[in-house]
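New to this. Please check this protein:
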Amino acid sequence: MQYILLLFAGVILLNLVFGRKHNRICLAATVCAFGALAFFVVPTKNMDLYRYINVMELYRDVGWRWVLKNDTGSNPLAAVFIYAASLVDDNRFLPMITVLLTYGFSIALLYKAKKDFGAKHADMTLALVFFLLNFNLCYVIDVVRIYICFAVMAFFLYVDIVEKQHRWLCWIVYIALCYVHYAMLVFVLIRLYFAVTRKLKGLFMAISMLMLPILLRVGYSMIIRFGGSSSVLLGTMSDKAQGYMDYDVFGIWQFLGSLCHLIFFTLLCVLMLWCCVAVHNKMVPHSVGEANGDCKRLHIGRARDLAVFCLYMILTAFTFADNYQFLLRTTYFILILTAPILLALVTKLRNMNRPYRQSMFVLIVMESLAYFGYLIVYVYNVLTFSFS
């Protein structure tokens, strides 16, 4: 436990003191610090990480040809990843690589948003603290694949939706991620739905949001009924979804924490949409760049699309709230996406009433500390470390 507390206190203090002048170095050091601690984690038998280590040891014995022939299945790219990790004799590199990739892509996304929206050091530090204290390091180490996929997809969603660049590459990444973890197919379909409905406004947008849970439930029923006979990927998704519906090892505090997160994320997205309406109605300066004299920075309205997409994701999480594992994991995916929304929001609030902005800072810090307290008491105490 003391190592976790020292890690978080150290990286937050590092970014507070040195982040203004050496932001990229401090962020890189933050990622490396989390990866270094993950290297010394001792996996327990109830962790997915323990199972992956057994698979790595098998792969070392049987070789690549056997893996390619017998163990690719519905997630061939996952098998490639695990085999690549098995080429290193020390199994401790797997959790370290997992954490480096997950936190690396997530924090790189925040840094892109900082540059795009012209955020100040204080705004960036707040968004970073929000992400670090609300994200679950233990689950990243334990589960491995899905959180890497979340971080990678979130990064490319930002490039795709906010920066509107490299869209062909983004879609290639989305599709590839489905073959790392079958669950990513749900989020790729949401991105496709968003592509069809993104230009809707007002009442039509509200209707499209209300339609999404209905379409998801219909699609889910079809996958459960016909998935096994249509494709390997959908068959695996069907089997796993049914298995997770029967999953009962889910504490009330986990469930309530996920619901509170979703409500809080909804508030942030709605505030972001309100800011975009205020920009459109000339209530506040039209762009961040106007306040800072930098016309190259992105129009704050670009964050609108990301906020709408996050609301789609939140609706999806509520739609499948009876599937506890989906609810728990999707909440952390949404967290990665809402961190840049928070950064854009507090940057815009800089042009507004000071007490209003201070209230926003206090609310974010209180929520982050409260959730981190829950993680310390109920989650991080299961992690053990060996430095020998």
Q: What stands out?
A: Residues 54 and 91 are 9 Å apart (CA to CA). The longest helix spans residues 202-230. The two ends are 17 Å apart (CA to CA). DSSP finds 18 helices and no strands in the chain.
